[in-house]
Design goal:
Elements lengths: L5 H21 L12 E5 L3 E7 L6 E5 L10 H7 L4 E5 L8 E2 L7 H13 L6 E6 L2 H11 L4 E7 L4 H11 L10 H20 L8 H12 L6 H7 L13 E6 L21 E5 L6 H4 L1 H16 L1
Parallel strand pairs: 3-4, 3-6, 6-7, 7-8, 8-9
Antiparallel strand pairs: 1-2, 2-4, 2-5
Length: 307
């Protein structure tokens, strides 16, 4: 294998950047996102983010969508929280109907900045960030930056960086998705099929994913994007283990086949004092597979954090 000289490293980085711009073109759509009275697009410097907002005053609980899921999948979960808090559900830049302003808008740092810009405009003195899987790294980075009144974190299925890299290798064993242009083309051509597979594979065997699949694939047919390959390529660097001194609840679904070799204790790399709760009959999407049970665990923790 050739030694990675500075020139080769530079060419690889350039290739990834160009592939991100290519992905943006692949997912370009003139279709309007589904209309909902609580959902709107918010412009930031790096992206236009799609946000579901229950409105109201007081403490805020913000959920980050775990791609390819869009805000349409959160109705049942919102019903568990809207009576108690102002709830936001935000799609990552580039995913769903949130659009980056350029290829660089897919970068981890730019994504964090866009999410932070949206949340800084929310009038509250107390905020809980809920990040599933890779979005947990966004939540910990936002807390680390200390620009938001974050009182606690709820991390669902969030491994440490070593676990995330192992997950990436396991889900993409041949490295095709991590290959610039090849990965983007493959995901774009098979997005519906890939989403169906993932939502069935990652959820618990006892869970019927029909509605979740229908909602997600239905959103893609209406123009929702799923630039998975670009995320795998552009987020190689940026996410780190947080080591936060902040109240944290770590929730794990033990039937997640994609994380079957990942121990829940790895979340302690983000928050050494985190409280770990395991759901025996859940897979990757604890908050969507069992919203009532998730609420019963999360709400007391959130209330305690918010005082």
């Amino acid at each position: 294998m050739p030694k990675p000289t500075p020139d080769r490293v530079f060419l690889f980085k350039e290739s990834i950047m160009n592939a991100a711009a290519y992905d943006r073109l692949l997912w370009k759509s003139g279709k309007k996102p589904p209309d909902h009275p609580e959902t709107r697009l918010i412009s930031t410097q790096n992206a236009e983010l799609r946000v579901r907002d229950t409105g109201g005053a007081g403490a805020v609980v913000a959920f980050f969508c775990d791609p390819p899921v869009t805000v349409e999948a959160y109705d049942a979960l919102l019903e568990q929280f809207r009576k108690h808090y102002r709830v936001l559900v935000i799609e990552l830049p580039g995913f769903g109907f949130s659009r980056p302003r350029g290829g660089s808008g897919y970068e981890f740092g730019r994504s964090v900045e866009a999410m932070e810009e949206v949340l800084q405009d929310v009038d509250t003195d107390g905020m809980i960030l809920c990040g599933p899987c890779i979005c947990g790294f966004v939540a910990t980075e936002l807390a680390n930056r200390q620009h938001l009144p974050v009182k606690g974190l709820v991390l669902m299925q969030t491994p440490d960086m070593a676990g995330m890299l192992e997950w990436r290798k396991r889900m993409d064993p041949k490295g095709l998705l991590r290959t610039p242009f090849v990965g983007q083309s493959l995901v774009r051509a098979t997005a519906n099929r890939l989403s169906r597979f993932w939502l069935k594979y990652a959820t618990a065997r006892s869970f019927d994913p029909t509605d979740l699949v229908h909602t997600t694939v239905g959103a893609q047919k209406k123009g929702a994007a799923f630039p998975l390959a670009t995320m795998l390529q552009r987020w190689r660097k940026g996410p780190v283990d947080g080591a936060l001194d902040l109240p944290t609840l770590a929730i794990w679904g033990l039937q997640d086949r994609s994380h079957r070799n990942t121990g829940p204790e790895c979340t302690l790399k983000h928050a050494p004092e985190a409280q770990i709760v395991s759901f025996q009959q859940c897979g990757h999407f604890t908050e969507l597979e069992q919203p009532e049970a998730f609420s019963e665990v999360a709400r007391p923790f959130i209330s305690e954090c918010l005082g």
